[in-house]
Amino acid sequence: MKILHSPFLLYCIAFLQIGFGVFLAGFFPLKIAIPGYATLRNNETEPQFLDQQNGSKMPPHDQVKVKPLFQKMVFILIDALRADFVLPLSGSDLPRMEFVSRLVANKETFSFLARAHAPTVTMPRIKALTTGGIPGFVDAALNVDSQALQEDNMVSQLQRADRKMVFYGDDTWMKLFPGHFMRTDGTTSFFVTDYTEVDENVTRHLDTELSHLNWDVMFLHYLGLDHIGHLAGPRSPLVKPKLQEMDSIVQRIYTAMIEWDRKAGTSTVLLLCGDHGMSDQGSHGGSSSSETAVPLVFISDQYSHGQGAVYDPDVELEQIDLAPTLSLLLGLPVPQNSLGTLIIDVFSGLTIRQKLSATYINAQQLLQVLENNVKNHKQEPSFLSLERAIQSHRDWLRLWHDNSTLDMESLGEKTLTTYRHAMNAMRDRVASTLSKYDLHAMAVGIVSVCMALLGLCHGHLTANGHLSLRVDTSSIFPILGSLSLLLSLHAVFCTSPVASPLLCHCGTLSLTLTFVLLTAGSLWCGVLLTTYSRGLFQEIWRQVCSQHAVGLFLLGGAVFHTVSLLSSSFVEEEHQTWYFLTVTVCLLIGLEHWRRSVLKTSDIPPTSVTPQDATGRQETRLSVGDTAYREISTRHRGTTEERRIHVDNRRETHADDATGEGVVVCLCSLAGVLVSCRIARTWNQTGDKWSHLPDMGDWLVRPEKKVILSMLTSASLVTICAVHWRDHQTSLNRCLFLLAAFAIYCFRAANGSIVLPGVYDPSSMSKGVVEARCVYAVVAVLFINALYNLYTTTSKLQIDQDDDKSLGATAAVWSRFYLDLLLQWTLVCLLLVRTHNISLVAVVALQRACLGRALLEIKWMSSSHLTLLHVWLGQATFFYQGNSNSLATVDLSAGYIGLEEFNLPVVVTLLYVATYAGPIYWVIALMVHLNTRHNQGTMLVNRSLSVATTQASFTLALTRALPVALYLVLVTVERYHLFVWSVFSPKLLYETMHTMLALSLVLCLAVSNIFIK
Fold first, then answer.
1. I want to staple 941 with a disulfide (CB 3.0 to 4.6 A). Which of 335, 714, 843, 937 is the partner?
2. Cβ of 95: how many Cβ atoms within 10 Å?
3. Which GO terms describe its cellular component (predicted)?
């Protein structure tokens, strides 16, 4: 069985992963921008108009030139600066920057609320601010490893214009614009536990720069506010002091700016903005209002004394509008890929004719982008609108040239409005074409995933003994035919207009991918064709019809969850699906077990296996009077091992040995599981519609509840120790576990989350690096000790396939190993989760203990059903943690626990582990329950320990392949949907990471199954 199924399982998951990767490469292609840089040379600043006297075109006698309004600029970017931290938004109770708010209220600024595009993470937002374009969604995944920006941008235009620049702050700028700055000092943006030094490193350069003034543009990127949000959220007591600090810096620069402007006769503008906002949970990356709303505040001496404008809450801009606005304010050409439109209000120092000229320049640049991205652009409604706006501009110029007595100011404002509507239409039209999908690669990926799904279904049935994995020699003809057909189709598509640049390019990667997919696809087509003749789908239907209520609900629930992904609302609120499924299945398990114990019925009578007869067939003897399964011996033929597997599975599925006392214990344990589910779902509100509602976590993290949180954390750690105390009887494990639990509490006390009087001073917080590393060391020692015990114990065992005691000893050894592994993983979870979620870990540990006790009494659930149950519980725990299908709920702070400096591989690993701690926990618990169950079962069940692991592996892979196959079809169909980037694409990234996790776990199970005797 192991020889047959392990390679086949690895083949299926490899095929699934390759197909998934090909689809992602087609769905998330890197954005290709127009090469080169924009220039002001030979550009018309005004449209030509007809002279009414002679009917000839003529330019104005004095064609107006748009001169720069400002010679210097201070660009202050405060990471995660929500709009309501600055602007007076209704309904907000958050603190604000008082000095800036006072300038806004006194009409000494031009202030706007701007909307950022998803994904709301730093690197794509910096690209948007400097290029005026809309970065691709894949930039969110590239955020941790920024590369030099090759696209035309404002910073490069400043360098080309010989403007001297200095920069201090997030080193992402230095990676995007290498060699652009005269002086610079960068700090890593990913060490989120630091919110003081990261800002002090920027501020310490201000005295020098404000006194030298040998620069034209100074960029400052402050990170502390964003880090506080990740650590404690926007309502943390740390937010107000940080805003006061930022406010004082703005005031300091503004005062110095006015002084040097008045002395030198120059003009300087200070821009205060945020790259993205901050969710109510403190994170970002999604598309909620609080994450996309950022302030844009223009401050200058020109706007002082009430020369600015009052903030209008009804006016919203696009964040990308900043690039063309700043470019023309500083006398630079607009970046040629920009989709932004001028914020014309800040050009208050210009005449109406100069404003029209600046808008005309912006319109011509947008027209160039439209020409490069839309075929037959002259037939577009937006182009026709622009033509009308330009004609209105010509008419205005003619009237101005003729010295008309009309109100030229009002007519000019109307023309500006016409321009604005036309440019917004052009921007929307171009934005809709920027997502260029590789449909060829996407289709190949979908077909590959679907074929892997069918393969896993086939492998699951063979693992249960219902089908044979043998392939006849006649399969060579379907294989060769399939290969010829696939080669022909590939050649046709690669010579068509929809040819994939990934699969049809003559490169090493594309040739390798094409060879692998064609060979594997043709092989699998032949296998499937021969399998269909054996009645694959008839066998699937027969098994569906013969399942008990719990099995049918598990199968139906898996299908229901998959189908629910077709709805954007169900994707946003997916946690509700898992909460319903887990509670319902636990309730059904209790009812089914009670029914079997009360009615004393069994779905299948005892069976016995006789030796093979002369023809190689095996007879399965049934008890007298049974007719339901009298044809088992004729339907299931093959090797002795295959027939034994079938009978073992029937016995395992339908055995009913419950006693009265055992039933009571089982039902009480399941009741404990239900209660723990109800408690866990109240811990963290998640999703989209109800995430703003208060929950237990919000109540516990309040500053005045720190003592209560400390007591609850202590009680939770004690509870977890009690749960694992009985499972780990060696003194070494117990002592090390107590040491790690104490170190975890000390780590939380060191960073100020909880209190430990007499040891940690609440007024001075640290990163707790030593305490965290102590926990890592304990986990490493425990893991090495567990591996050593496993090796030494298994090497001493003399395994006899016909000896029940020997087989039980093997299951006991592996059960002990997985219990040790579960203990280590629990310590990792306790260290990486947020402080208030430590109690959630205790609740989940109790839930696992209750379920384990119930499963000892339930012997009628198959290994596949147990796997589905644990996968569901893992999914529910994923959402219990506060995760969702939005990037905003990723807890970045977990990636830096125990680190003193940024380390990309370690940070990514810790972040991945923290996010998927729940699903991994329940997969380990699954192996504990499977091995414990086989250790305490009958001889016949012991014989199928290896088979049970194989069944679990195939089932776990199927739980990923089924939703992924349907979801890929969905995002392909809905690729132009309104929510494709805000809902479907983030979910696709989560599915990617979850699939990688599940397939890695399947690989580990397949490898471990080799060593199970």
1. 937
2. 18
3. endoplasmic reticulum membrane
User: What is the average per-residue pLDDT within 926-954?
Assistant: 69
Flag whether pLDDT at 973 surpasses 50: yes
The amino acid at 846: L
DSSP string, 399-457: HHHTT--S-HHHHHHHHHHHHHHHHHHHHHHHHTTS----HHHHHHHHHHHHHHHHHHH
The Cα 318–Cα 341 span in angstroms is 8
CA distance linking residue 360 with residue 341, whole number of Å = 11
Distance of CA 1010 to the CA centre of its chain: 34
First to last CA, the chain: 11
Cα–Cα dist 677/880, whole Å: 9
Q: How far apart are CA 512 and CA 519, in angstroms?
A: 11
Looking up tokens 């029940």, which residue turns up?
Answer: 804
Q: How confident is the model at residue 862 (pLDDT cuts 50, 70, 90)?
A: confident
CB atoms within 10 A of CB 723: 17
* Residue 199, strand partner residues: none
Q: How far apart are CA 997 and CA 878, in angstroms?
A: 13
Q: What is the CA radius of gyration of the chain?
A: 33
Structure tokens given for 747: 């780590």
Question: Exposed, middle or buried: residue 488 (CB in 10 Å: 0-12, 13-18, 19+)?
Answer: exposed
Tokens of 961: 């392949």
Closest CA to 69 of 245, 298, 396, 232: 298
Do 517 and 448 touch, CB atoms closer than 8 A? yes
Q: 109 — phi, psi (to 5°)?
A: -145, 170
Cβ neighbours for 964, distance < 8 A, ≥ 6 positions apart: 16, 20, 449, 991, 995
What's the rounded Cα separation, in Å, for the pair 18 and 455?
14
pLDDT of residue 843: 94
Cα distance between residue 219 and residue 79, in whole Å: 13
CA 860 to the chain's CA centroid:
38
Q: Give strand ranges (E) for 705-833.
A: none
Q: Which residues contact 957 (CB under 8 A, 6 or more apart)?
A: 9, 12, 13, 16, 456, 998, 999, 1002
Q: Of 974 and 806, which is predicted with more confidence?
A: 974
Q: Distance between CA 12 and CA 456 in Å, rounded?
A: 6
**Across all residues in the chain, what is the average pLDDT?**
80
Q: What is the full DSSP assignment across 239-263?
A: HHHHHHHHHHHHHHHHHHHHHHHHH
One-letter amino acid for residue 253 of the chain: I
Among 517, 668, 675, CA closest to 594: 668
| CA–CA dist 16, 445 (Å, integer) | 9
Q: Could you tell me what percentage of the chain is helix, strand and coil, using 3-state DSSP and rounding each to the nearest 5?
A: 60, 5, 35
**Beta strand pairing call for 72-78 and 293-300:** unpaired
Paired tokens of 783: 């893991």
List the Cα angle 441/442/443 in 5-degree steps. 90
Whether 860 contacts 595, CB under 8 Å: no
Determine the number of helices (DSSP H) and then strands (DSSP E) in the chain. 36, 12
Phi/psi for 965 (5° steps) reads -60, -45
**DSSP at 38:** -
Q: What is the sign of the dihedral through the CA atoms of 49, 51, 57 and 63? A: negative
For residue 116, the number of C-alpha atoms closer than 13 Å in the C-beta half-sphere is 38
Go through the domains of the chain in sequence order and give each one's CATH number: 73-349 (3.40.720.10)
Distances 927 to 103, 720, 867, 944 between C-alpha atoms, Å = 63, 19, 9, 14
Q: Pick from 386, 384, 366: which is nearest to 320 by CA?
A: 366
CA separation for the pair 605, 36 (Å, rounded): 79
Dump pLDDT digits (tens) for 71-83.
Answer: 999 999 999 899 9
Which tokens hold the place of 639? 């090797």
Measuring CA to CA, which residue among 956, 963, 955 is closest to residue 990? 963
